[in-house]
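U., I forgot to send this yesterday:
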Amino acid sequence: MIVLTIEQLNEALAWWKPYLGLSDWEVQIFIVSCADMDGNALARSRTRAHHKELDIEIGTWESRCFRSRNRCDMELDLVHEMMHSVFNPLMLLAGESLDGGILEDLALEQPVEMLARSMIRLRRLSGPHFSWEQATQAGRLEAEARL
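Result:
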């Protein structure tokens, strides 16, 4: 379980931006209730690529309990949503509307989630990088095993 404050999410954001090619983007993070999101979403984002702007909403811990008992990793959600800003132009190039249809789910959500999980796993295995990481090697491996 990785539950973070807005300050901790912003620390993670600053670390991840250069790795995802978003160093010159304006990214804002908001912690909101999952009840304000569609479907079973735990996070969502809105990309304005032509302005290099990205807004990310991440569901609160309390509201997540009702949606997914097995998924509480706010850093993973952050990276997943950041990766959408990288992949969305490819979907637009392919002529997809990005309206949340089945094709988008198959073509976008699955690879974004797989890559986000892999990137998080590699980062955690390389050791602690943030002030909020106090986990031992065993704790990091336990968190990695849940991915």
